[in-house]
Amino acid sequence: MRFPQFNEDGPLAGYELEAMRSLSTAALTARYEWQTACTMWDRLHTAGETAELRRAPASFSFHEEAVRRLASGVGEYERQAALIAWRYTAASLVLGVAVLRRIAEGKPPLTVTGVEELCQEPTLGQLHEALSVPVPDLVPERRHPAVVPGERENSAQEWGKVRAGVVDVIDLVLELASDEEAAHPRTKDEAATCLLTQHCPPHTDPVYDGVLQPLFQLAEEVPYSIARIIDRH
User: Fold this and answer.
1) Euclidean distance between CA atoms 199 and 174, whole angstroms
2) C-alpha distances in angstroms, 139 versus 112, 192, 223, 225?
3) Closest CA to 22 of 86, 83, 95
4) Each residue of 19-49: b (16+ CB within 10 Å) or e?
């Protein structure tokens, strides 16, 4: 799924469209890099395990050393790519939902300043708030619902799963802060004000596990949902 075509003379303001398209492209690029890094790390991890199994007493172990060094570098890149992907994907979803909602409700375009603010990485609380908007209910049903039976119900479930995943991330951020005796955050409300990219220490398991992949899907769907709303108006 990619970014849809929009009529330049439609209800979308030029800066809204440009911002949505730019965030979408950035998120997609980072997504590909993250997925590629994950594949590379898995391959090297498997190679390392195989090398260990075949290892015999020897004076030279350059193969094992090379695999270990490569895996370390790829692991760091995987984490970096994931955080970059999160930053742009989360912003893409938050901006997209704001635009979708204002079009569905017949409101005027967002201000340029408002769009610029929504292009920044959202806090976990802001992302949860965007995921709480009943987007599936705002999108018109297809002209032939039988083509995708149960689409609205399934979509609502997916949004609910990602929303629950963000709640889990907020809990993890709070838990990590407690384990490291950090001054902030101390409460769940404070954790909701955090940016994930600033609270995902490299020495811990990624807090975005289980959330980033389905977040990609929702963020990509939003522009197409906007197009369906425009098409039916």
Assistant:
1) 9
2) 25, 28, 11, 6
3) 95
4) bbeebbebbbebbebbbebeebbeebeebbe
Tens-digit pLDDT profile for residues 217-233:
999 999 999 999 998 76
| 109-158 tens-digit pLDDT | 999 999 999 999 999 999 999 999 999 999 988 776 656 778 889 999 99
Phi-psi label, residue 109: left if phi above 0, alpha if psi -120 to 50, beta otherwise: beta
Q: Give pLDDT, residue 142.
A: 78
User: Can you tell me whether residue 183 is helix, strand or coil?
Assistant: coil
pLDDT > 80? residue 60: no
d(CA 35, CA 44): 14
Residue type, 58: A
Task: For residue 8, give the 3-state DSSP assignment.
Answer: coil
The span from the CA of 48 to the CA of 68, in Å, is: 7
Closest by CA to 30, choosing from 219, 228, 226, is: 219
Take residue 95 and report the two structure tokens written for it: 């901006």
Residue ranges of E strands in 63-188: none
